[in-house]
Design a protein that fits this description.
This protein is α+β, with helices and mostly antiparallel strands. It is about 35% helix and about 15% strand. It has helices at about 10-25, 45-55, 95-110, 140-150, and strands spanning about 80-85, 90, 115-120, 130. It has a four-stranded antiparallel sheet.
Length: about 150
């Protein structure tokens, strides 16, 4: 948007986003994650919403906790655990099938086909930590599952 006057950039960006939302929403083709009012890539849920939805679905969860600091120093907040990525009914990750089923259930509740969920272990009964519609890593297994999903297989 460099060619647009500085004062008009926010307006132009909002108009382009609205256009993209309307256009993407009108498409009748298969999509991985349909746009929402908050994001062009599906729901824009906060961590607490993912945890609450998982708990409402009967998935064991770890309590959501937020912290704040006045320090300017960034802290490493990466969560340990096991990631399950689902694409439709397909899943990737070396985990118990119960965790994969729970992740598929959560994806359906969110209205998305692509979702990564983090659990505190890989075994049955592991607790849900969080989820993302933007998987951190997309390996060959996930790419193959995406291709199969988009082909309708």
């Amino acid at each position: 948007l460099g060619h647009i006057q500085t004062d008009d950039r926010a307006y132009a960006a909002a108009e382009m986003t609205a256009f993209m939302l309307a256009w993407l929403s009108s498409l009748q083709c298969l999509m991985v994650n349909r746009p929402s009012a908050a994001s062009l890539w599906g729901p824009c849920w906060r961590h607490e919403k993912w945890v609450r939805t998982a708990a409402e679905l009967g998935i064991p969860v770890e309590a959501a906790c937020r912290t704040a600091s006045i320090s300017r120093r960034a802290k490493n907040v990466s969560s340990p655990g096991t990631v399950v990525t689902v694409v439709g009914e397909y899943f990737t990750g070396d985990v118990d099938e119960d965790l994969a089923r729970q992740t598929v259930l959560l994806a359906k509740a969110a209205g998305v086909a692509l979702l990564s969920a983090r659990f505190n272990g890989a075994e049955k009964g592991a607790r849900f930590i969080g989820a993302s519609i933007w998987p951190d890593e997309v390996g060959y297994d996930t790419a193959d599952a995406l291709l199969a999903y988009l082909k309708g297989e």
